[in-house]
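I wish you would study the pair of lines that follows with an eye to the fold:

===
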Amino acid sequence: MQRVCFLLKVRPERLAEYRERHRDVWPEMREALSRTGWHNYSLFLKDDGLLVGYLETEDFEAAQKAMAQTEVNARWQAEMAPFFEGLDGRPDEGMVPLTEVFHLD
């Protein structure tokens, strides 16, 4: 299982709304993530907008490609894009995995 961690930056003026939107992620989005290989997926948000994402998957590239082909992901990414700073495209395309340097099992 591959562990993936990534960083994004939420606009400070959109933090409350971002948190609210993630209290009720669409059931079809949750199902698509699970079906396409996103497991143990978590998002952590600091008060300054730093967003840390973590997930486990067999193949991150394949999981991203599979999600990119779903209609629900296109809708979700379009709605989420305005929440982020420093992205030239969709938020799911801006997720660059960090390099793991230590893991205690």
User: Anything to note?
Assistant: The chain has a mean pLDDT of 95.
